[in-house]
Design a protein that fits this description.
Number of helices of chain A: 0
Helix content of chain A: under 10%
Distance between the termini of chain A: 41 Å
Number of strands of chain A: 11
Helix content of chain B: under 10%
Number of helices of chain B: 0
Number of strands of chain B: 11
Largest sheet of chain A: 6 strands, mixed
Order of helices and strands of chain A: EEEEEEEEEEE
Strand content of chain B: over 45%
Radius of gyration of chain A: 14 Å
Oligomer: heterodimer
Largest interface: A-B, 27 and 25 residues
Structural class of chain B: mainly beta
Strand content of chain A: over 45%
């Protein structure tokens, strides 16, 4: 069945270091979404990428959507303690327009001050 | 303030009891979803509803039931048939261009079976 995989599962960095998480889908996606879940909190939408090869930036966060629309990445420059949390990618489930998303397992980021 | 509310935040139940988790949204969204999250894992879809009086099973619907009698409300019942119900339950909604739009999540309910 359709799968979305994320690596790494966990990442510990020193404050100020960069961080990247990778998302790979078994199928071509019409779009990819990224969410952040703080410890003890709920997922919060960060961004949606739609176009092949698209790159979007939000301050220190850079999001990329692969040319084949099967992979994506999130890169954080100069991490801060406020970046701590779990980052999920998600893509539409199948080809139907149901609104269903399939989520990756997430990458949990720990930042040491 | 527009948003999604879930209650209660923490819920304890004894084995063999059914329990209903509340989810209410005032975002005027048509679609609503229930997810289960286990420690260190992603979100798994239990049920979803695209419109009032209609809902579909997700990947892990066994042992759960839902209703969608009002647009604003999508309660989830965890039945005694669910073999491992202890988990974090998240409700979400989406509106507008269904299939491409973001999902808004409630604060979640942490269910513990004693």
């Amino acid at each position: 069945g359709q799968q979305v995989m994320q690596i790494p599962q966990y990442q510990h960095v020193q404050e100020g270091e960069d961080f990247t998480t990778y998302c790979n889908s078994s199928t071509t996606l019409s779009n990819i979404q990224w969410y952040k879940q703080r410890p003890g909190g709920h997922p919060v939408f960060l961004i949606q990428l739609v176009k092949s090869g698209e790159v979007k930036k939000q301050k220190r966060l850079t999001f990329q959507f692969g040319e084949a629309k099967k992979n994506s990445s999130l890169h954080i420059t100069a991490t801060q303690t406020t970046d701590v949390g779990t980052y999920f990618c998600a893509g539409p489930y199948g080809s139907s327009n149901t609104g269903k998303l399939i989520f990756g397992q997430g990458t949990t980021l720990q930042v040491k001050p | 303030d527009g948003g999604i509310t879930q209650s209660p935040k923490y819920l304890f139940r004894k084995e063999g009891q059914n329990v209903t988790l509340s989810c209410e949204q005032n975002l005027n969204h048509d679609a609503m979803y229930w997810y289960r999250q286990d420690p260190g894992q992603g979100l798994r879809l239990i049920y979803y509803s695209q419109i009032v009086n209609d809902f579909q099973k997700g990947d892990i619907a066994e042992g759960y039931s839902v209703s969608r009698e009002k647009k604003e409300s999508f309660p989830l019942t965890v039945t005694s048939a669910q073999k491992n119900p202890t988990a974090f339950y998240l409700c979400a909604s989406s509106g507008g261009n269904v299939g491409r739009g973001e999902q808004f999540f409630g604060p979640g309910t942490r269910l513990t079976v004693l």
